[in-house]
């Protein structure tokens, strides 16, 4: 197969809006989350993952499945932003998340498209909603601080639960940082790896699709993605990390051969049925932070 061009529906042009100046409504926050899921889906190549080009390592879902899921989740993100603005106890956010999972499964015929994203993006919507009623801050650092201040303790307590889902079980088995632990730490890979990678890519003048590609590989080099471990064990996780680091060492998304290289990596993942679903969620989270940070 020859290497198709980098596919990504362009986001809005990011105007220089002062970050503290405009308060975001829950509707605007929810819209940013839904669009961020679309940003993630639209990026291709994206090793092993579903896009509008192909279904990667998945034979039970395609881009239509993701679009159905995304539509089913629209109101959920708005509701999480509203609940966040009310600074409700964590149990209320969790109830809303569980109901959203049920809606996702109903919309996809029982396929898990966005369980991780419901958790990560839902929490970020709540944290952004809370930040809006406390000074209107919308930058990444303010959103992280809001998440930790309001729900940090509950997220830490939650890590003591015994995992029952495949990702949590794989994380425990291989002593990795699970999605729950990542949340309890205030999503360090998102805020300390993806956000700086996004800013670096933009400073280098990369367009949005290439920025997202660079951020995706930065995430895959660092995240303990429990989907990779669930399907491929530690060997699969290290295979993905090694490829991400080689991609970065060869110049990342700015390099002239970046797209051909990324498509080759995609095919290698498909051959091994590897799917970095956690990295996909974190990419959507980075797209969300960019959208709420810059768009009016
Ligand atoms: C805390 C939960 C996210 C559950 O976490 P847990 O780890 O216990 O269980 P999993 O659902 O198996 O894994 C978590 C999902 O989070 C994503 N993820 C993976 N690694 C990380 C990480 N290090 N940091 C953050 N996020 C991570 C990932 O989600 C994406 O992949 C899923 C699709 O993958 P796929 O390959 O198709 O896998 P499956 O269909 O599951 O299996 P196979 O086909 O391979 O056999 C998709 O969901 C993406 O979004 C992980 O899957 C939280 O959801 C939870 O506790 N839920 C329980 C109910 C609840 O309380 N909900 C309310 C929360 S507010
Ligand atoms: N695009 C995608 N493909 C496969 N799994 C995913 N989980 C979240 N986004 C995904």
Task: Please describe the topology of this protein.
Layout: H1 26-42, H2 63-85, H3 90-108, H4 115-132, H5 140-158, H6 166-173, H7 179-184, H8 188-203, H9 208-222, H10 226-249, H11 258-272, H12 277-294
Helix pairs in contact: 1-2, 1-4, 1-12, 2-3, 2-4, 3-4, 4-5, 4-12, 6-10, 8-9, 8-12, 9-10, 9-12, 10-11
Bound molecules: ligand LTSJ6FE6 and adenine.
The average pLDDT value, as a whole number, equals 93
Cα distance spanning the termini: 41 Å
Strand content: under 5%
Q: What's the helix count?
A: 12
Which descriptors apply to this entry?
binds adenine; TriPribosyl-deP-CoA_syn; mainly alpha; binds ligand LTSJ6FE6; about 300 residues
Explained architecture:
The chain is mainly α. The chain has one domain. Helix content is 67%, strand content 0%. The chain has 12 helices and no strands. It has helices at residues 26-42, 63-85, 90-108, 115-132, 140-158, 166-173, 179-184, 188-203, 208-222, 226-249, 258-272, 277-294. α2 (63-85) packs antiparallel against α3 (90-108), α3 packs across α4 and α9 (208-222) packs across α12. Adenine is lined by residues 40-41, 49-50, 58, 117, 275, 277, 280-281. Belongs to the CitG/MdcB family. Pfam families: CitG. Involved in the formation of 2-(5''-phosphoribosyl)-3'-dephosphocoenzyme-A, the prosthetic group of the acyl-carrier protein of the malonate decarboxylase. It is an enzyme of class 2 (transferase).
């Amino acid at each position: 197969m020859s290497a198709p061009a980098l596919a990504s529906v362009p986001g809005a042009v990011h105007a220089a809006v002062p970050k503290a100046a405009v308060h975001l409504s829950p509707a605007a926050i929810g819209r940013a989350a839904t669009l961020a899921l679309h940003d993630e889906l639209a990026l291709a190549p994206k090793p092993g993952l579903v896009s509008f080009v192909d279904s990667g390592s998945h034979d039970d879902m395609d881009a239509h499945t993701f679009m159905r899921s995304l539509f089913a989740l629209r109101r959920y993100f708005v509701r999480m932003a509203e609940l966040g603005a009310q600074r409700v106890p964590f149990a209320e956010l969790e109830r809303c998340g569980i109901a959203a999972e049920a809606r996702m499964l109903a919309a996809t015929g029982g396929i898990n498209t966005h369980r991780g994203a419901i958790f990560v993006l839902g929490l970020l919507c709540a944290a952004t909603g809370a930040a809006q009623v406390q000074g209107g801050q919308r930058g990444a650092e303010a959103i992280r601080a809001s998440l930790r201040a309001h729900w940090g303790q509950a997220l830490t307590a939650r890590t003591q639960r015994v995992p029952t889902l495949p990702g949590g079980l794989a994380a425990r088995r291989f002593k990795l940082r699970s999605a729950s632990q990542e949340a309890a730490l205030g999503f360090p890979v998102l805020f300390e790896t993806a956000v700086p990678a996004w800013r670096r890519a933009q400073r280098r003048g990369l367009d949005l699709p290439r920025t997202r590609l660079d951020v995706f590989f930065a995430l895959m080099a660092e995240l303990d993605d429990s989907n990779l471990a669930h399907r491929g064990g530690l060997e699969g996780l290290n295979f993905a990390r090694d490829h991400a680091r080689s991609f970065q060492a060869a110049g990342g998304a700015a390099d002239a051969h970046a797209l051909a290289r990324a498509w080759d990596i995609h095919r290698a993942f498909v051959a091994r049925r590897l799917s970095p679903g956690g990295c996909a969620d974190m990419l959507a989270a980075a797209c969300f932070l960019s959208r709420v940070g810059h768009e009016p």
